[in-house]
Amino acid sequence: TQLLEQSPQFLSIQEGENLTVYCNSSSVFSSLQWYRQEPGEGPVLLVTVVTGGEVKKLKRLTFQFGDARKDSSLHITAAQPGDTGLYLCAVDQTGANNLFFGTGTRLTVIP
Amino acid sequence: DTGVSQDPRHKITKRGQNVTFRCDPISEHNRLYWYRQTLGQGPEFLTYFQNEAQLEKSRLLSDRFSAERPKGSFSTLEIQRTEQGDSAMYLCASSGTSGYSYNEQFFGPGTRLTVL
After folding, report:
1. Are B61 and B72 in contact (CB under 8 A)?
2. How far does CA B112 lie from the centroid of its chain?
3. A42-69 pLDDT, tens digit each
4. Chain A interface residues facing chain B, Cβ-Cβ under 8 Å?
5. Least confident stretch, A13-27, A87-101, B60-74, B85-99
6. Which residues contact B25 (CB under 8 A, 6 or more apart)?
7. By CA distance, what is A106's nearest residue in B?
8. In chain A, which residue ranges form alpha helices assigned H by DSSP?
């Protein structure tokens, strides 16, 4: 069983549509991060959420941390082709010095 | 450019050869990480340095892998006697501790290794 389950695994939508991707776990985390990775590049940090129920906005992207700090969602409004990429959630496991990543959601926005 | 840099970006080698990758972290960051990412997966942790000390290694890091960070600046990851299963993207990341509350890591562009 994956520590972090991301869904959907693949998502292909038309430009202008809205979408939500999810990152779920049965474990509680002190913080959770979202990264976007483009083909052939390293992941780029988008946001860190810390407080249960927290909502953070980054332009057309809205991130929410679940009340129990076990899950998170990323909502994109009016998707654009530039949003295409692999969206990864990651957590800093207690007592560890490394991040644990989910398997990601691969988003394609069609012009 | 003040981000994390990695060299080379691509490496093609034959099975059994040794390869070495270099990572230059963000200059004020004292923590450095190596991850491996295979197709369709998220990055998987390999090893972690705080300054020049290698403090943690994953079980993924077999005895064919060795990493160093002399003087606590750049780091190298060497793979000896490469196998086809070593083909992956090798990512380096760095993070700071002073003034940082969370382990926000900044990644380099990666080195894509192909073992033929």
Report:
1. no
2. 11
3. 999 999 999 999 999 999 999 999 999 9
4. 31, 33, 35, 40-45, 48, 50, 88, 90, 92, 96-104
5. A87-101
6. B4, B32, B73, B74, B75, B92, B94
7. B40
8. none
A97 with B55: Cβ contact below 8 A: yes
Mean pLDDT in chain A?
Answer: 92
Nearest-by-CA chain B residue for A99: B45
Average pLDDT, chain B: 91
**How do residues A27-37 score in pLDDT, each as one tens digit?**
888 889 999 99
Query: Does B74 reach chain A within 8 Å, measured CB to CB?
Result: no
B55 CA: distance to closest CA in chain A (Å): 9
Task: Work out the number of other CB atoms within 10 angstroms of the CB of residue A95.
Answer: 5
Give the C-alpha separation, A9 to A13, whole Å.
13
Q: Does B23 touch chain A (CB under 8 A)?
A: no
Q: How confident is the model at residue B71 (pLDDT cuts 50, 70, 90)?
A: confident
How many whole angstroms separate alpha carbon B64 and alpha carbon A80? 43
Q: Do B103 and A88 touch (CB under 8 A)?
A: no
